[in-house]
Amino acid sequence: MAELSTLARPYARAAFEFAANADDLATWSKQLATAAVVANADNMVKVLTSPSLTSAQQATHFLEVCGDELTANAQNFIKVLADNKRLPLLPTISALFEEFKANREKSVEVEVATAFELDAAIQEKLATALSGKLERDVNVQTVIDKNLLGGVVVRAADVVIDGSVRGRLNKLAEAMNS
What we know:
Number of domains: 2
Subcellular location: Cell membrane; Membrane
Organism: Oceanicoccus sagamiensis
Largest sheet: 4 strands, mixed
CATH architecture of the largest domain: Orthogonal Bundle
Membrane topology: Peripheral membrane protein
Radius of gyration: 21 Å
């Protein structure tokens, strides 16, 4: 996965900088998400991996499927990706673009895994606390994990906060054994 990110990052950065300079992040975000879905479609994967098609033919097929969903600039971006044999990277490019966008907007998607459903008041308190700790606007999404005994596990980008009972017991065991 790291290799895909390494290959996709320059393209995602270029698209992000272009969109940011044009003050059009939302449109580019939508277009890249659409292109990522198209690139993952089974029929399109066959087109993109076909050795009998030239880069221009792959780009033409791709753009025909996207139809009017892409602006002229986004179509040019797709053509550049095709010329460099990077169309299969579109899902990764889209994900990286969203990370750049979130960093610019000072927001972060946070996944909170719990053993049971959290009510709205607790979710709001948690979002407020995480917002202060992460210094960003926080969008909380909860997931029920029946493997947890209690507590929560918070994942925000590369930050993991393990407040689960199992995590605390593991820390206690480590402390006692050392």
